[in-house]
Amino acid sequence: MKCPFCQHDEIHVLDTRVSEEGDAIKRRRRCGRCDKRFTTYERIELSMPFVVKKNGSRTEFSEAKLRGSLMLALRKRPVAAAAVDTAVQSISEKLLTSGKREVDSNHIGELVMQELKRLDKVAYIRFASVYKNFEDLAEFQDAIEEAGDEGRGQAPRG
What we know:
44% of the residues lie in helices and 20% in strands. With 158 residues, it is of the alpha+beta class. It has 2 domains: 11-43, no CATH class; 50-149. The strands form 2 sheets. Strands 1-2-3 form a 3-stranded antiparallel beta sheet, with no helix packed on it. Helix 2 packs antiparallel against helix 3 (105-119). It is elongated and about 75 Å long.
């Protein structure tokens, strides 16, 4: 690291603290040449993978778009906003921890379907009908059966 004032590279750390938010390390530094002091922050830099669309184009991952897709499927359904936040966070974490630089939009669609199946079966069917481009009633029936099968064999909610 170089001094921002004189560009000298002999810098001494005077004090190190964790930021109040706990997401950064704050260091007070002093230049060995000009004796000026300055503060630096160290933060974790995480980058989401790029999304490869069906047409081959690449775009940055957007939590806002992800949330919008979930909210559209969940429109007028009795699902708490906190549950949607948890679903968005879960999908984002899966993408981040995958370690991949690029991910197919199909993969994100599958992750959304998993979360919707868990949150609300009707929203799952809504999303699946558009995502899988259902052509006839039989495809709807298959999706309904698939959503219903997951609930079987579990203890009744009480």
